[in-house]
Input
Amino acid sequence: MKEIWGGRSVRLIKGMLVIVLLVGGLSVSAQKVDSISKGKLVFQLPLLDVPYHFDAMRTVNDGQLSMGSFFGAYVNPSMKQSLNVSVNLVTGLHYGIDKLFRVNGRKDQKELSSSKKWLYMSTLVVSDVVSVYTPGFSGWLHEEFHRSPMTRFGVNSFNDMNTFPLGASTVSVNTIKDRDLERFKAASSSDFIRMHVAGIEGEYLLVDHLQRNNFFYDQELFHEFSNVLSVMNSIAYVQACSKSEEVDNDTEEMSLQEPLMSQRDFTGFDFIAWTYDLFRPDEPYASRGTHPLGNGIDRYRKTTDLLPHELQYLKRQGQLQWLNVISPMIFGVRKISLGTKGLYGNFAVRNYLTSFGNDISLNLLFKKADWKFLVGLHSAQNYTNSFPALEVSLIDYAQAIGNYKLLFTPRVLMGTQPEKQRFKGSSSAFLGLLECKVELNNQKWYRPYIEVSTKTKGWVAGNDYLDDNFSCRLGVVARFNR
Output
């Protein structure tokens, strides 16, 4: 379920608007920094993601592979596919607004008249708020990240964001059978637990990719309000789930308004269900009891279903979500000069909720001339222990092979995570990921690419698989001058 910034999150609207005004002031009036290259708009879309696509084909076709289900599987996109759709749409929306106001970076923003500057900012704010309810944007992405683990285990569903639910305070993933959820948890409790919190995993990844693109490609796009909206709403949602009387009353009301199984969300309030299953990974799904209306399983958990120490853990995770605002980029500082030799940097802290607890990372971004790279320092945490990992990526490294000019984006992640993704326990397991995207640099605005990825068992943000996996993606990159 996606809680939109109406509902309980309304308490943060005033604070959010204050931050937006601060961001607007910083971004429009900040001292100009010379670009090291002309800004680029970069759009990327994986057209085929296998083996995930085969999982989706089976899910939409009652467990069978057929030629007819090949295209039908696209209604259940992978995490990579849905994330790139959202990044592309937000980038296009903000670029379109800049073109409307004839703005090309901070210099033009500063030169707008006062009235036009406020009209520009108001257009951005209204567009970003409306986009939350629009298919393809952050709210839709939230639900698609919930759906991805379900798709992998043959649980078909419908994303209610596709109905343009303007003004709704909550939006669900529905049209799901109880027996499919029961089978899913029995098959992989770790993937089932991840499913509950994958929604804000997607939203934080959207923020991360928009910030990276602004930094690495000098896009100078005003993503800050959209990013603040996603981060603040995610923080508010996690924290709201520990407000006992408020959220429990809403849960009871939802249950009574959904007489048909097809109307029910897959889990209710995400983070109560996540906490419940973290502490009960081996409990059969049917043990939740009978739905209040007497038909089906009682899917939704309330805070009264949590023991005191379990509710306290959820409250602590709500507080830790504030780590996601620790970045100069959230306040409009898109790059920081690290000397006089053209080296620039920036950083961001991420805190993702996971199948075993949470993962806190410090992401360091650097660029100099044509060199772009990222270093991530990870600390995966279950109930009692921490597990370190290191991530390194090189972005768009140009290299000729024969007559072909190619752009390479390799990524390496190595470290440890809890063994078997267990929430409780001190044993660790090796985590490794090797990934590389190869793009044909054909000097045209569209370029084909292939990306291969192999990983051990373990959780990686934006990767659909918790088990070991080899994936291959074929897609297109479009590049335009800013």
